[in-house]
Amino acid sequence: MSLQGKVVLVTGGSKGIGRAICSRAASLGANVVINYSRDSVPADALVKEIGADKALAVQADVSKVSEIEKLINAAVAKFGRVDVLVPNAGIMPLQPLAGTTEETFDKVYDLNVKGPFFLAQKAVPHMPSGGRIVFISTGIARNSAVPPPYLLYASSKGAVEQMTRVLAKELGAKGITVNAVAPGPTATDLFMEGKPEAMIKGIAAQSPFNRLGNPSEIANLVTFIASQESAWVSGQIIGANGAGFV
Ligand SMILES: NC(=O)c1ccc[n+]([C@@H]2O[C@H](COP(=O)([O-])OP(=O)(O)OC[C@H]3O[C@@H](n4cnc5c(N)ncnc54)[C@H](OP(=O)(O)O)[C@@H]3O)[C@@H](O)[C@H]2O)c1
């Protein structure tokens, strides 16, 4: 499997799952565009690790359309096109219905839903046939045992899943596939934040493997879907969850 010479753009590519996707794509020969919003240090460190000729860090808040345009323009200015788009940046505030403000609702939907939608719209004109869009959903978008605080987050990823199925039909004519990877609980800042150790152990125990996923395990699936070997896979939501959400 190779991504030799491909241009892979990952939002939220500086940390967690996004960082693992950037590293894996680079190890398969890709040029990578590493987007982040606030913290330039890990993004710059990753560029150094991969090499400045093959990696570009771009600060952009991808919950805003004007910043999405800035990001795509920077990618095209450096590498000429986008072969693989991974709208990975996401947030997961945990509140049930009663505690959720309009501000929180807008924040979640702006980054988790509006961001991926307009990233696709702005990137597609720069994507050749053979292009790939790999959205990132979550196992809890389809699981009926999800507890109440996941209401807003799970609904935002439900929107991403239906976007995947419908957009795959529009972009098939251009030779671009559209899929989503749905990780289970994965050891990143987003997952760990605010959870006591006992809770983390309890969630890990929901997988028959009795552990959390690693970002690199999600990245392995994303880069397979990004490769030419996945050409006949489109419109699919593919889980990576150690049988935790079946
Ligand atoms: N971890 C899990 O258990 C899990 C499970 C299922 C699905 N997911 C999904 O996987 C994706 C990645 O999650 P993660 O756990 O790797 O998250 P993470 O560790 O919190 O990393 C988030 C990344 O997104 C960037 N980011 C945050 N807000 C941004 C914005 N407005 N614009 C651009 N970049 C932004 C961050 O950069 P800065 O720090 O510079 O802002 C960082 O690079 C998310 O879509 C999440 O919903 C995660």
From TrEMBL:
Q: What does the UniProt keyword field contain?
A: NADP, Oxidoreductase
Q: Which PANTHER family match?
A: NADPH-DEPENDENT ALDEHYDE REDUCTASE-LIKE PROTEIN, CHLOROPLASTIC-RELATED, RE15974P
Task: Write down the InterPro entries for this protein, in alphabetical order.
Answer: NAD(P)-bd_dom_sf (IPR036291), Sc_DH/Rdtase_CS (IPR020904), SDR_fam (IPR002347)
Q: Which organism is it from?
A: Neoarthrinium moseri
Give the protein name, as stated in the record.
Uncharacterized protein
Q: What family classification does the UniProt entry report for this protein?
A: Belongs to the short-chain dehydrogenases/reductases (SDR) family.
Short name of any one Pfam family annotated for the protein? adh_short_C2
User: Care to name a GO molecular-function term for this sequence?
Assistant: oxidoreductase activity, acting on CH-OH group of donors
Q: Which residues cross the membrane?
A: none
